[in-house]
């Protein structure tokens, strides 16, 4: 292929933040065949303009490497966010009123919802008998209500009965049908295997609806400046869905998918996960495998070195954590990077003990850059020694700043802080310390757990409070990071984490994934960044969103 002499796309009159130390700022970028071919001043336009070149003048707005959400569930999240949005519900009365209305409006006898915070329930413990009468009694609407951390659900007594859930169960994982002392289920189903008992009775989303919802979700992500998302779940059905979605047209952004390896996985499952590593579409590919070593602090299913205030969060999600270790080693030996959800300090320590001996990421076969490192996700409470170990390990640390700012209160009266107690809560979301220790820190949303707007997440990482709530006290303000580090967490860091040196900067030869925003993310106050419009999103040289 001869090298192009004219550009397909010219972005001019821009304040370009390249994140390339050799040329940090520029005002024009030329793109041909999906790749940046020139970066510089206005001479770039003269050099590359041809009769078919599209020229976009930004009027002085900022252009950065395209933003990538380092942890997201756009496909699985369609199910995780099925039904009514309950994220704003703050009291039991409010929840009951909402459920009564949903039950009245339901045409199929079902009520589904998501985003429920445990603080709504006395003692943070969801119970069916607190909501059954609002749903029309034990013969009323069948309700499946997912908690905000997506690791547990409250189901109505009517659904417990319909699903034949009448007592404790044993699963390959540490999932639990929560029961009273007499063995009667309370309606709280902890973790994935337990939730599946009830969830499989719920009416599935029709295929056409899934496709429509997924496409509009991905379009909304692109419209907020995202050029990609690192997808932290996947199975045969979701990969199939991506294939069919791409039959309808290009995806609005790139997806890098790590399918799940769940407790109980056998050799056939591992072989399937390895075979999937070859699967790719035009804008999506499978890369890596996702594990969960524990659950969540809010659900009492995290793996802590000392029990929480309720005496919970004492073990791994894997009944046999050594089986997790064997699976990770097998994937590593096959050259497949792993991603492990690790929230509690004991879980993080166990995962580090498994991953550290595998060695730091090294360039593969003389190729430039580095291969993708194994990753640790969430890292919600870390003692000092683990921060230092992660920093020295070469592993990728992936953190979601808005989980801290939106689910935890500075006064320590939220469920997460009460369960952990003051000392461990003080060690929450140590983004600054991880960076200072030398870790590669990727930022993300974990949508649908939190909103995917990268501007608001970058702002929250700097403020340690919700950017939309001026009055909120910051949570662990000493862990606030600078604006440059926040931008790197959505650009350079996810590229390096993926072992892809051709992304995350704007320089000749890099993939033309670009985001333009109406304020300089590295210079303006965080609130101004959050309020600034996303003017342009470019994926592989193609504008997928423009508001110029
Ligand atoms: Zn997640």
Inertia-based shape: globular
Ligands bound here?
zinc ion
Residue runs with pLDDT of under 50 for 5 or more positions: 364-370
Number of strands: 25
Distance between the termini: 33 Å
Largest sheet: 6 strands, mixed
Mean pLDDT: 95
From the alpha carbons, calculate the radius of gyration and give it in angstroms: 24 Å
Q: Quote the beta fraction.
A: 15-25%
Q: Which range best describes the helical content: under 10%, 10-25%, 25-40%, 40-55%, 55-70% or over 70%?
A: 25-40%
SS-derived structural category:
alpha/beta
Give a topology summary:
Elements: E1 9-12, E2 15-17, E3 25-26, E4 28-32, E5 35-40, H1 43-48, E6 54-57, E7 62-65, E8 67-72, H2 76-80, E9 84-85, H3 92-105, E10 110-116, E11 142-147, E12 152-155, H4 157-162, E13 176-179, E14 185-190, H5 191-199, H6 207-223, E15 226-231, H7 236-248, E16 254-257, H8 267-276, E17 284-286, E18 289-292, H9 321-333, E19 338-342, H10 345-355, E20 375-378, H11 384-393, E21 396-399, H12 401-407, H13 415-426, H14 431-436, E22 440-443, H15 454-463, H16 483-489, H17 492-497, E23 514-517, H18 526-531, E24 534-539, E25 542-546
Parallel strand pairs: 1-6, 2-7, 8-15, 9-10, 10-11, 15-16, 16-17, 18-19, 19-20, 20-21, 21-22
Antiparallel strand pairs: 1-4, 2-3, 4-5, 7-23, 11-12, 12-14, 13-14, 23-24, 24-25
The structure holds zinc ion (ZN).
Residues 71, 73, 232, 446 line the site of zinc ion.
